[in-house]
Write a structure and sequence with these properties.
Length: 189
C-alpha cells in the first residue's frame, strides 16, 4: 500500500529533514498545512537542532511532529563502534530525548518493522548515508509505501529532488546502517 502525497524539493542544502516534515504535515493536515518555501524555512529555523555539519537531529523531528499533535515513535538501534562525527551526532541527539522518552524505542529492528508501520497508515522518516563510512552525507527520506513480492521495494519521497522513487529493500537496509547505527521515525494521526 502506497500513500499519495504531495512532494516537495528542499531549497536549502541541509533542509531534507524539515522538507520531509513539510510533506508529512501536508499529508496528515492538508487543509491547514500548506507546502511552501516559507514554511520549509520556518520549520528549519524552528527545530534548529542541527549538528555542526547541519544534519537534522531525529529528536528534533520527533519534537516538532509531537508539537503538531501527531503520534510519533522513534526507533533506534546501535551496535559497538566508534566514529568521531557519528558519536558527536548521537550524543547531541541523546541530550534532546529527555522529554520524549515515552516514544523512544532502543531495539534492533528490520525492514519488516518499517513495513508494519506503513501498513497501519503511518509515514516513516529514515536517515540514510549517501556517502561512505568515512565521509558521511546524511539525508532524510520519507517512506510512503512498499511493493512487490519477488522484487521487494520501498516507495519514498526524496526531498533532494522532490520526486517519488523506488529503492530495493536490500539497498535501503544498507543505506540505513550508518556504520553502527540505524534509526527510523514513524508518524501518524
Amino acid at each position: 500500500m502506497t500513500k499519495i502525497i504531495q512532494t516537495y524539493k528542499q531549497t536549502r542544502e541541509n533542509s531534507c529533514g524539515p522538507s520531509c516534515i513539510l510533506m508529512a504535515m501536508h499529508y496528515f493536515q492538508p487543509s491547514s498545512f500548506q507546502i511552501t518555501q516559507a514554511k520549509e524555512h520556518q520549520i528549519h529555523d524552528k527545530i534548529g537542532s542541527h549538528d555542526l555539519e547541519g544534519n537534522t537531529m531525529p529528536s528534533a523531528i520527533c519534537k516538532y511532529l509531537l508539537s503538531q499533535k501527531l503520534k510519533v515513535k522513534y526507533y533506534y538501534s546501535r551496535k559497538e563502534g566508534s566514529n568521531v562525527f557519528l558519536d558527536a551526532f548521537l550524543k547531541r541527539d541523546e541530550s534532546m530525548r529527555n522529554d520524549i522518552k515515552s516514544i523512544f524505542y532502543e531495539k534492533d529492528f528490520t525492514i519488516h518493522h518499517i513495513k508494519h508501520e506503513l501498513n497501519v497508515g503511518k509515514l516513516v522518516f529514515v536517515p540514510i548515508n549517501l556517502g561512505n563510512e568515512h565521509n558521511f552525507i546524511l539525508h532524510w527520506i520519507l517512506l510512503i509505501g512498499h511493493q512487490g513480492l519477488i522484487f521487494k521495494s520501498m516507495v519514498y519521497a526524496d526531498p533532494m529532488d522532490g520526486e517519488i522513487k523506488l529503492i530495493s529493500e536490500k539497498k535501503l537496509n544498507r543505506l540505513m546502517n550508518i556504520v553502527y547505527v540505524k534509526a527510523f521515525i514513524s508518524v501518524g494521526k
